[in-house]
Amino acid sequence: MQQETVIIVSGLLRSGTSMMMKILESGGMELVTDGLRTADDDNPKGYFEFERVKKLKEDKSWLEEAKGKVVKVISALLGELPDKYRYKVIFMRRKMEEILASQKKMLIRRGESTDKVPDEVMAKEFEKHLQKIEAWLENQPNMDVLYVTYHEIIANPTENLRKVNEFLGNILDETKMINAIDRNLYRNKA
User: Fold this and answer.
1) For the whole model, what pTM was predicted?
2) How far apart, in whole angstroms, are the C-alpha atoms of residue 123 and residue 119?
């Protein structure tokens, strides 16, 4: 079953998806990444992205090779995944104020404007998106979903990563998963 399933790590931008990818890699999972986006001050451990995911609407051919592996897909693109595959989705949740603070810091580091959209408006849009995508996920017969909260992994990694391992069939090394967590990177606390 595991070899026929594509494992997806998803969530909003800055919700902890890169951390989860690092955890799964450390636990023994093979990742689908291309290394094009390298580590930086915003993600010192790396982004673990696969550029072709951004073109998922036009190109789904790579998914066949992703069976039994983990790939990061932002929540806005989940609806583009073809239903001919079986998926296990680890969906990262994070406090909205932490997501917004993290995004703002990232924009500042890149020299981009942070005042295009007020936080309250952005938060409402993100919340609306999350409600829509979570309702959609509930109705996908080919997708099993595990919701994981960023700050709960930091606060109680043993219990939370055990749930992740169980969700994936108890095939991972939980000690290595726990050791992959860098609490110093939890810099945008609510």
Assistant:
1) 0.91
2) 6
- DSSP characters for 110-177? TT--S-SS-HHHHHHHHHHHHHHHHHHHHT-TTEEEEEEEHHHHHH-HHHHHHHHHHHTTS-S-HHHH
Longest dimension (CA), the chain: 47
The vertex-89 CA angle with 151 and 170, nearest 5°, equals 80
**Residue 148 in contact with residue 90, Cβ under 8 Å?**
yes
Question: What contacts 148, CB < 8 A, 6 or more positions away?
Answer: 16, 20, 90, 91, 92, 93, 160, 163, 164
User: What's the CATH number where 13 sits?
Assistant: 3.40.50.300
Quote the domain boundaries for residue 75: 2-94+142-182
pLDDT tens-digit readout, 15-49: 999 999 999 999 999 999 998 887 767 676 778 99
Q: Indicate whether 187 belongs to any domain.
A: no
Contact criterion met (CB below 8 Å) for 74 and 13: yes
Angle at 113 between CA 105 and CA 184, to 5 degrees: 5
